[in-house]
C-alpha cells in the first residue's frame, strides 16, 4: 500500500500498516513498546511516549485488550499534555474499538 496516506504517520515514527503477524516476537515487542511509552510518559517526554504507544497500538491491534491499552496510553499522553483535541479523539477511538473490534489472535500470556 503506497500513497500519501501511508506516509502520513512517518513523522510519528511508526507505520500504520504494520504486518500484524503476531506471535511471541510481536508480544514481546508490544510489551517493550508499552513499557517504553510508560517510561517516557513518566519522564514527561510526550513525543517519545506518543511514538511508543503508537507502535504498541499497531503491534497489539489484533487483540482487543492490547489495542485498548495502547489507546489508554495515548489518552494519558494527551491528558498530561492538556491536549483536549487528542484526548477526545482517543475516547472516540476507544469507544469504537470496544464496540466493533474483535480479537483476531489470542494473546500469548
What fold name goes in the CATH topology slot? Serine Threonine Protein Phosphatase 5, Tetratricopeptide repeat
E-strand count: 0
Report the biggest beta sheet as strand number plus sense, adding barrel if it closes.
none
List unreliable stretches of 5+ residues: 1-20
Q: Using only CA atoms, what is the Rg?
A: 13 Å
The CATH homology group name: Tetratricopeptide repeat domain
Q: What is the level 1 CATH name?
A: Mainly Alpha
Structural class: mainly alpha
Mean pLDDT: 81
Query: How many structural domains are formed by the residues?
Result: 1
Q: How large a portion of the residues is in β-strands, by DSSP E?
A: under 5%
- Taking the alpha carbons of the first and last residues, their distance comes to 32 Å
Relative helix content? 55-70%
How many helical elements?
4
Write the H/E string, N to C.
HHHH
Shape: flat
Q: Based on the structure given, which CATH architecture is correct?
A: Alpha Horseshoe
What can you tell me about this protein's structure?
The chain is an all-alpha fold and 109 residues long. The chain has one domain: Serine Threonine Protein Phosphatase 5, Tetratricopeptide repeat. Helices cover 61% and strands 0% of the residues. The chain contains 4 helices and no strands. The chain has helices spanning 24-42, 46-59, 64-80, 84-100. Helix 1 (24-42) runs parallel beside helix 3 (64-80). The radius of gyration is 13 Å and the shape is flat. 29% of the residues are buried. The model is unreliable at 1-20 (pLDDT under 50). This is DUF3703 domain-containing protein. Pfam families: DUF3703. InterPro entries: DUF3703.
Amino acid at each position: 500500500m503506497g500513497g500519501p496516506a501511508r506516509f502520513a504517520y512517518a513523522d510519528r515514527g511508526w507505520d500504520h500498516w504494520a504486518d500484524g503477524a503476531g506471535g511471541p516476537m510481536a508480544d514481546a515487542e508490544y510489551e517493550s513498546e508499552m513499557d517504553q511509552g510508560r517510561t517516557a510518559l513518566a519522564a514527561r517526554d510526550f513525543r517519545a511516549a506518543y511514538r511508543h504507544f503508537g507502535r504498541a497500538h499497531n503491534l497489539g491491534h489484533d487483540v482487543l485488550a492490547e489495542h485498548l491499552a495502547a489507546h489508554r496510553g495515548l489518552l494519558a499522553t494527551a491528558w498530561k499534555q492538556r491536549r483536549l483535541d487528542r484526548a477526545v479523539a482517543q475516547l472516540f477511538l476507544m469507544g469504537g474499538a470496544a464496540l466493533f473490534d474483535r480479537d483476531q489472535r489470542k494473546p500469548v500470556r
